[in-house]
Every structure is written in C-alpha cells, then in structure tokens.
Write a structure and sequence with these properties.
The structure is a single chain. By secondary structure, this protein is of the alpha+beta class. The protein is built from 6 helices and 5 strands, in the order ααββαβαβααβ. The strands form 2 sheets. Strands 1-2-3 form a 3-stranded mixed sheet. The N and C termini lie far apart (about 50 Å). About 25% of the residues are buried.
C-alpha cells in the first residue's frame, strides 16, 4: 500500500523531481512517504532556483496538500557564485511582497546591494521603496 501511494505521488510530482534534477548544482536528497505525504528533500544552489522549484510544485498541484517539500538553498556564498556565473544582466518579475532588498538578497546574497538593482532600473523606478508586483526589473551581474 505504501509503495503504491509512493508511486502515485511520484508520478504526480515527477515534473518537480525532474526540475530539481535539471537544476545545475542541485542535489535531490530523498523522495519518500512521510506522515502520509510525499516528502521531497533537496538542496539547490540559490534562492532563485528554489523559487523555480516552488513554481513547478504549484503547477503540479496548487494546493500541494499531499506534499511536504524541504527545499533549501546552499547559502550566501554559493548564491553569489551562481549569480556571477549568469549572464551580465538578467530580469526578475516583481512578486507581491517583494522589496529591492529582498530581491538583492535573492540574487546577491546581500540585501544591502539593492541600490545596484535600483540604479539599473532608473528608467522605471524613481524611488527604491516603490516597486509593484508584475514589474520586470533588470538585475545586473554582481
């Protein structure tokens, strides 16, 4: 019975498992049944990668009531190295509740670097404290 439940839930969340496996530097640590739910435990290289995994989880099942996801990022140093290895500039779509400091922490591992993002988006922003969900911001390489 437990094996059947595991197989069914793995099938349901296969796209999530695949997205973790395809993430450069990610480590899928385990996938099993715990407390009647599918447990996916993984470490990813950055908060941005973590967000991509969570986006995939929500696509598989917006309620994810039968899933426990323990997705952690490898930390500030790895996030900084990851951001350096990306292209010179990338974009980020502002989510509800975001601040430039929060975005800076996600991409650079340091919230105090928000000014870099603000300066790169002077054409769209007049105040670093006023950003709106849905805005697409340039995030320069650190």
């Amino acid at each position: 019975m437990a094996q059947e439940q595991l197989d069914q839930l793995k099938t349901k969340y296969q796209s999530v498992i695949n997205s973790i496996k395809q993430e450069p530097g990610a480590q899928l640590q385990n996938v099993n049944i715990e407390a009647g739910k599918l447990l996916i435990r993984a470490t990813v290289p950055s908060d941005a990668a973590k967000n991509r995994v969570w986006d995939q989880i929500k696509r598989a099942d917006p309620t994810y009531s039968d899933l426990t996801a323990d997705i952690t990022s490898q930390g500030q140093t790895d996030a900084q190295e990851s951001s350096r290895s990306r292209s010179a500039e990338q974009t980020y779509t502002v989510q509800s509740g975001d601040t430039l400091s929060k975005i800076s922490k996600q991409f650079y591992g340091d919230a105090s670097q928000y000014q870099r993002i603000f300066e790169a988006n002077r054409d769209k922003l007049s105040n670093p404290d006023q950003i709106a969900a849905g805005q697409i911001l340039k995030v320069p390489q650190f």
